[in-house]
Amino acid sequence: MVGMAVGLVFRWQYRACTVTRCELPVFLQKVLEQQMESHRDGHQKQLARLRDDIEANQKTIEELKE
Predict the structure, then answer these.
(1) Please, are residues 52 and 44 in contact by the beta-carbon 8 Å criterion?
(2) What's phi and psi for 2, nearest 5 deg?
(3) Is the whole-model pTM more than 0.70?
């Protein structure tokens, strides 16, 4: 992100779009929500893998006890 002040007009350049000062809070909120959703999805997948590993290890332990 690069901020540029042009006279009295404030614009924020992000990738291919230009955002004015009044649009900036809404724009940043959307970007942050997308990032949070992406992180949440990644964490959910990681938790699912960890649960599967725990279940597999518990089965192995039970088999070894028999």
Answers:
(1) no
(2) -130, 125
(3) no
Percent of the chain whose predicted confidence (pLDDT) is above 70:
71
Kindly state the percentage of the chain with pLDDT values over 90: 44
Hey, how many other C-beta atoms are within 10 angstroms of the C-beta on 19?
Answer: 19
CA distance 14 to 27: 10
Give which of 7, 38, 9, 12 is closest to 23, Cα–Cα: 12
**38 token code pair:** 């992406």
| Sequential DSSP letters for 9-38 | EEEEEETTEEEETTTHHHHHHHHHHHHHHH
